[in-house]
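Q: What would this chain look like folded?
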Amino acid sequence: MKKKILFMTNHIQYSDGVVKALTELVNALDKEKYDITIMPVFRCDEDYLKNIDPAVKIKKAFGFYFRGLSKIVGLLPQKLLYKRFIKDKYDLEVAFQFGEPTKILASSTNKKAKHIAWIHGYGEEHLKDHESFDKIVCCSKSSVEKYEKVFRYPDRITYLYNLVNEETILKKATEEINVEKKYDFTFCTVGRLSPEKGFLRLLKCHKRLMDEGLKNNLWIVGGGAEFDTLNNYIKENSLGESVKLFGKDSNPYKYMSRCDAFVCSSYNEGFSTVCVEAAMLGKPIVTTEVGGAKEFVDENGIGIMTENSDDALYEGMKEFLSHPEKSEEYSKNILKISDLKYKDRKEAAESLFDSLWKQ
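A: My prediction, written as structure tokens:
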């Protein structure tokens, strides 16, 4: 008999790294072994659903979102929300994101189910909630090391790297684009346009470089709440010729494949999946020191990891522009990475799930 798995997340939407990680995971899991359901608590972008295997069930909780709704919902009794939205009995309940998914499943009344909480950034805000889960899954070894120091049950913590489907990425990367490059060197970044991704500071770094005569193009792909803020900054600082703000796009790889280096400017990440995707396209990386950056970018020698500050990010980008010959060395090192394999990561996830039912 198939095991029934519920994955709960905040939203299903484009330009969302957590949703992308969840999509790759559920698409990869063996449908002969698992009966899989995803429940977005809030927004559910119907157009995005075409990316998810039709065998995966989608059950909405609220099905909508407006600013401030998550705070309102957070004040409600979480056990009542669990009973309101989760009618079926599952063998495994997975809180795939912080906030409401974690709070609701921490209040699960299904005593026969096993429970997993997934951490994509740093989960200290859920220390108490996490005590109700059988396993805490981080996205990188470095995140495990941090969380073990503060969590009451460190033996419950493990990590699984996000699955990344190289075949799909390489295929989509060949799609044509019609974008003029004003300068020789192009940085590209991809993600949800929200404050934690650091895109405003990235624009400020770009402006500093341009003012110093270090000319470059900056491509930003993604939609989100900060679109107008970023667009206004571009206009106010006359950066329209060097910066392209493409907005939401279901295929960011066509842009990534045509850049010279990828930038992760985030303040916080559990493990930047898009950095892995950039590496699969052979692109060197400059990243702030977020989860996974040291073990993936720095230790593999595929780019520059900077301190998580505006000045350090600026210096990292400047290093690429001042010494373009290093990009070739970083790209060669990408070919040596051995732990990107989709199949291995899929098997690791299934092994973890199966092990819980044997306990």
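The mean pLDDT is 94.
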